Amino acid sequence: MGDSDTVTADVVVVGSGMGGSTLAWALRDRDVDVLVVERGRFLPREVENSQAAEMFLEGRYKTAEPWFDGSNGEAFQPGVYYWVGGNTKFYGGSLPRFRVTDFEETQHYDGISPKWPFSYADLEPFYSEAERLYQVHGIDGEDPTEPPRSSPFPLPPLPHEPTIERFASSLRRQGLHPFHTPNGMNLTTQEHRRQSTASDGTPSQTDHKSEAENRALRPALESDRVRLLTEAKVTRLLTDAKGTRIVAAEAEFRGRTIRIAANQFVVSAGAVNTAALLLRSADERNPDGLGNSSGLLGRNYMVHNSTFFMGVNPFRTNTTAWQKTLGINDWYVAGPSNEYPLGNLQMLGKLQAAHVKGARPWAPMWALKAVVDRSLDIYLTTEDLPTRDNRVRVDGDRIVVDWTPNNTAPHSELVRRVSAAVRKAGYPIILTERMGIATNSHMCGTAVAGTDPAASVLDPNCRSHDVDNLWVVDGSFFPSSAALNPALTIAANALRVAPHIASAAV
């Protein structure tokens, strides 16, 4: 960017993860000058990308500073990564749509999951567009909770490998409805699968994984309307004399402070960092943070109740290369067998010893390898509910997270039911690890969208009720968390609000 201390654009997008990169792609052909600002840099392509030990034991790609647990003041290492493409560089490419009921007021065991300010039908065309952009593999008709679709999946489902097909057959005999999970992994050969075995949690050395950088940002940068500024950490947003409009962002850029002036400012830094940035941007006109007249900025933080689950058969090895092809939603909504929603089952990418060493540090690697060579690996999620006391705060340079899990009884019941089903499928040993405060890859809710400015931070189009030219397009806007991976919903929403942002920018 040269030696200038001021950069200008029509639209500044803070963050290059799923929301920011998808928005840049959606704006690429519109008559606006877009600048994506990313605090990280491009993640290198190297053989270590696919080595779980480098990622989970050596911390090769960890870039986040510690956050602090508000309950005890202790530091923890969050599961966030500052690279171009954000957390999608490390996700497993799971790209489901939320269900119709996820957008509606729903009774749960511990309370109400609130209604969204727009419906599934409103978002559906953009789900279809996002599936095409991220090359989603899937098939309709297998999952009884599948919502209506205006177009088929762009690509056929990834087939199960033999061990997973045998598991699916057992589940069907038990009266369940296993389905091929919607996935953005373009694995057309067994060699591709072997190359991507660890890609649920590590970067991909190839472009087999559909993520924000390769599917959205790189194509957007081919337009002369989109630019990218890396290694620039936005630290503050500055408002005009009335405090109702942002005039510039301040950023730390390679050892100096620069100023970024724009017409519209879009924040997409992740639910924690977005809230922290807006809280740190407090001024005389906005003493509690930008866009915080409701007092809800940073509150309603949600991350899912989640459990890593392993079913082990000591006498049968699992040679599956890419395991993340099967899901179950039989207990996702309330029904005859469960009074309240329980949640989702999805397979994990095949676990390796390095993946589980952190949870069992006392165990020797040879023993861990013996277990994971014989395990089915599953991820279970149950919806957590928004509460004011679960929140993000800032304390000087520190980010503090107050989080007490809720709606945990349904999660325990989900674990119990899955344990029974997995045992019946031939895996007598069950090992589980409940995820804690540091597992926050599904974070959302800290700047909720709604129609009432007193009860929400953003309007239904994700524009601040208080600050005319402030928008948020990451998971912060979610009024509820559902119990599914949020990435496709974030992408679809960015496509939905892009025309509104473009219109405001001209």
From TrEMBL:
| Source lineage | Bacteria, Bacillati, Actinomycetota, Actinomycetes, Mycobacteriales
Give me the stretches of Basic and acidic residues compositional bias.
206-219
Gene3D superfamilies recorded for this chain?
FAD/NAD(P)-binding domain
Biased region (Pro residues) positions are 147-160
Q: Name one GO molecular function term.
A: flavin adenine dinucleotide binding
| Protein name in the entry | Putative oxidoreductase
Q: Which family does the record assign? A: Belongs to the GMC oxidoreductase family.
Feature: compositional bias, Polar residues: 196-205
Disordered: annotated segments: 139-160, 175-219
Name the cofactor(s). FAD
Q: List, for all copies, the residue spans of the domain called Glucose-methanol-choline oxidoreductase N-terminal.
A: 193-304
Q: Note the Pfam families from the entry.
A: GMC_oxred_C, GMC_oxred_N, NAD_binding_8
Task: Keyword check for Cytoplasm, yes or no.
Answer: no
Entry keyword annotation includes Ligase = no
Where would I find the Glucose-methanol-choline oxidoreductase C-terminal domain in this sequence?
437-494
Q: Show the InterPro entries listed in the entry.
A: FAD/NAD-bd_sf, GMC_OxRdtase_N, GMC_OxRtase_C, MIP_CS, P2Ox-like
The alphabetized UniProt keywords are: FAD, Flavoprotein, Oxidoreductase
